[in-house]
Write a structure and sequence with these properties.
Number of helices: 9
Number of strands: 8
Radius of gyration: 18 Å
Structural class: alpha/beta
Strand content: 15-25%
Distance between the termini: 71 Å
């Protein structure tokens, strides 16, 4: 019988919400979750997405896995986010810039595990405070991508203090997405550009 402490560590709802396209990294996350589900009894994977043929394929492929919930399109997303402890987002989508998945997760005090892609590394930290983990998956085989994401998730499972600390950090990191902060960043950027090109 595992100790109470171990049971608490293993109770975690992992979530992802994004467009239902392959390059958002759905298959990487699902495979990473499957590496952990037997070891950690009380974890679930909750997926919210726009309905596509690709997501229909994944639903069929993993239909026997009760701990993976294919929820489809959820609007508004608030209720979904309220039930999530950790968001994993293995995106390599070519057009990625400032993904809403990251912004909305941090606004709900949910740390994010994501990739070293587009502006994501800058989005999950602010003035040296981190509210997530960056996993570099570029140029490596699928199995190694899966292992790296699995290891990153497991770090939160075995260290609840780390999870709690990063949840609290979300309040600081998400400040950069407040309208006033964004407005001032734009002003600062245009001021620099203008001064460089008189």
């Amino acid at each position: 019988e595992p100790s109470v402490k171990n049971r608490e560590i293993a109770r975690l709802n992992i979530g992802m919400f994004a467009r239902g396209v392959e390059s958002k990294g759905w298959d990487i996350l699902i495979a990473a979750f499957l590496r952990l589900e037997d070891k950690y009894e009380h974890i679930t994977l909750m997926l919210a997405f726009s309905e596509t043929n690709y997501m229909d394929y994944l639903k069929l492929k993993y239909s026997k896995h009760e701990k993976i919930q294919f929820l489809g399109l959820i609007d508004p997303i608030d209720e979904f986010l309220s039930s999530i402890d950790l968001v994993a987002f293995p995106t390599y989508y070519p057009g990625e810039s400032l993904p809403n998945t990251i912004i909305e997760s941090l606004m709900f005090d949910i740390p994010v595990i994501s990739t070293q892609h587009a502006e994501i590394p800058n989005m999950i930290q602010y003035n040296g405070v981190h509210a997530g983990t960056i996993v570099n998956i570029q140029g490596i085989e699928f199995d190694e991508q899966v292992k790296r994401f699995s290891d990153a998730i497991e770090k939160y499972l075995i260290n609840p203090n780390f999870l709690q600390e990063q949840k609290e950090n979300c309040k600081i990191v998400s400040n950069q997405f407040e309208m006033d902060t964004c407005y001032n960043k734009y002003l600062d950027f245009f001021s620099k550009v203008t001064n460089q090109n008189p």
